[in-house]
Specification:
two-stranded antiparallel sheet; elongated; membrane; signal; transmembrane helix; Synaptogyrin
Length: 131
């Protein structure tokens, strides 16, 4: 859910333009990489959650203990990696938001803050998943 919120905030209002131009730029200090990173990890986290949910649904039907072990280790490894990536994303978005000038933000400030906040919450949800 947190990944969806981050993704939706960045896609919905993460890009804006000045009234005199039709060129879109990222609301985070005009840094396109900040928006791309948030969108990328949000989409991949959501898809991974769907995949691991399906694995959990079919887990009792998997009789091979080696396959079960590898699936559990994949879930653990992915959760650990994604905890780290969400931490990097939170730090990156927060840093870029701190350097954003107030006059560059006409619409989307709340979405930017929501993306930062839910990136922070995602760290703890992935840690708890790994635990």
């Amino acid at each position: 859910v947190f990944a969806l919120i981050v993704f939706a905030c960045l896609v919905g209002e993460g890009y804006t333009n000045v009234p005199s131009s039709s060129n879109l730029f990222c609301i985070f200090n005009h840094n396109e990489d900040a928006c791309r990173y948030g969108i990328g990890i949000g989409v991949l986290a959501f898809l991974a959650c769907i995949f691991f949910f399906m694995v959990d649904v079919y887990f009792p039907q998997i009789s091979n203990t080696t396959d079960r072990k590898y699936l559990v280790l994949a879930d653990l490894g992915f959760s650990g990696l994604w905890t780290f990536l969400w931490f990097i994303g939170f730090c990156f978005l927060t840093n870029q938001w701190a350097w954003t000038r107030a006059e560059d933000v006409h619409v989307g400030a709340d979405s930017a803050r929501a993306a930062i906040t839910f990136s922070f919450f995602s760290i703890f949800s992935w840690v708890s998943d790994a635990w």
